[in-house]
Amino acid sequence: MQRFTRTSAARATRTLARSFSSSTPVLTNYGFIGLGQMGQNMSRHLHSKLKPEDKLFVYDVNAPAITAALGNTKDHGHQQMYAASSVVDVGANCEVVITMLPEGKHVKAVVQEIVDLKKDSPTVFVDSSTIDIPTSQAISQLVREANAGEYLDAPVSGGAMGARDATLSFMIGREGPKLTDDRLQFIFDAMGARIFFMGKISSGLAAKLANNYLLALTNIATADSFNLARTFGLDMAVYAELVSKSTGNSWASATNCPVPGVKAGVPSNDGYKGGFATRLTRKDMVLACQSAESIGQPLFLGAIGKEIYDKACEREDLANRDLAVLYEWLGEMGGDSRVA
Ligand code: NAD
After folding, report:
1. Residue closest by Cα to atom 5 of ligand 1
2. CATH superfamily of 2-200
3. Is the CB of 21 inside a 6 Å radius of any atom of ligand 1?
4. Ligand 1 neighbourhood includes 114 CB (under 6 angstroms)
5. Where is the catalytic site (predicted)?
6. Tens of pLDDT, residues 21-42
7. Which residue ranges make up each domain of the chain?
8. Does 101 sit in the ligand 1 pocket, CB within 6 Å?
């Protein structure tokens, strides 16, 4: 395990020269910023599949998250992951920078710092966070205007389980030909199972927001349906199995079954810890509603759905647990004494 602390623009130039030289092997230094629920596992998979000559620099404002990411490498038996001391440190060392951060303002600040540092040196910025479309377009513009490389939005679907199992779906917003850069193909193959090319810049995010609007609502419908079944006195394990094979099947009802004790390896089985936080579901709901409003597209369930997530997020214990916790919370609100 190595810790990396020095920062130098000169070294950045060396790194770039090395990376783009015609001699083989070509080295690539990847950077990963944002080591939370998703970033921990995504960076672990990226690291485990690096070519022997490549390196991965990881950074998070929360220092224990960096220590945890370095700890994840133990199984792979090789030391190619380095703890960066700052965003600038990542920027100075890496040609390809992946971000997995909470909101647009975080991503924009990170990209701006790196662009300011490297000015005309090319960096490929891959943002897999779920952020608002106007900020994504502003980031694309700032990279383009500074002639600082390339930015693409590459949000993911599949949640924490998809990150853990490297089965994420990437939704790519990118102008021009599909993937001509082997480094991009490597990243997406290492961390995911599917790539969807959605078209121009920010269309990956458009797809992500439309999808997560659907997820947020099916999660509420699942909670209602499962509480109804419980109140009917049904065996919940049998009901969950039935739904998973019937027309009520969805990610929220089957893959992320909300009933504790029914399915192994899902957040409901561990006090709704981990997974996709209710606060992030609310964030996506808000972003989807705002985007729809900005283009005059009515979302007929938007207001009621947002109100439910707003209310849930008034409680920190709900806001920070997996969205399936709505099953328990709405069950309690309905006065169902049988809800555990
Ligand atoms: P998280 O809150 O667990 O992790 C975010 C990490 O970013 C934290 O470790 C935080 O310390 C770090 N961070 C914040 N600001 C930073 C900065 N300026 N520089 C460096 N690090 C910084 O969030 P998450 O669940 O990993 O989600 C990350 C993004 O992915 C969000 O945009 C989310 O909407 C999206 N997403 C999450 C899921 C999921 O299931 N959790 C699924 C799909 C997409």
Report:
1. 36
2. NAD(P)-binding Rossmann-like Domain (3.40.50.720)
3. no
4. no
5. 208
6. 344 456 899 999 999 999 999 9
7. 2-200, 206-334
8. yes
Residue 111 has pLDDT above 50, yes or no: yes
- The one-character DSSP state at 338 is T
Length of the chain: 340
Q: Which of 84, 209, 188, 190 is nearest to 136 (CA)?
A: 209
Atom of ligand 1 nearest to the CA of 106: 18
User: In the prediction, which pLDDT does 275 show?
Assistant: 87
Q: How far is CA 297 from the centre of its chain?
A: 26
**Whole-structure pTM value:** 0.87
Q: Which long-range contacts (CB under 8 A, 24 or more apart) does 153-156 make?
A: 153/127, 153/201, 153/202, 153/203, 153/204, 153/205, 154/126, 154/127, 154/128, 154/188, 154/204, 155/127, 155/128, 155/129, 155/130, 155/204, 155/205, 155/207, 155/208, 156/38, 156/128, 156/191, 156/192, 156/208
Q: Which residue has the tokens 């001699």?
A: 23
CATH of domain 206-334: 1.10.1040.10
> Coil, strand or helix: which one is 30?
strand
Return the best residue to mutate from 66, 127, 256, 280 for the ligand 1 pocket (most ligand atoms within 8 A of CB): 280
Q: Give the Å distance between the CA of 21 and the centre of ligand 1.
A: 34
Number of Cβ within a 10 Å radius of residue 253: 25
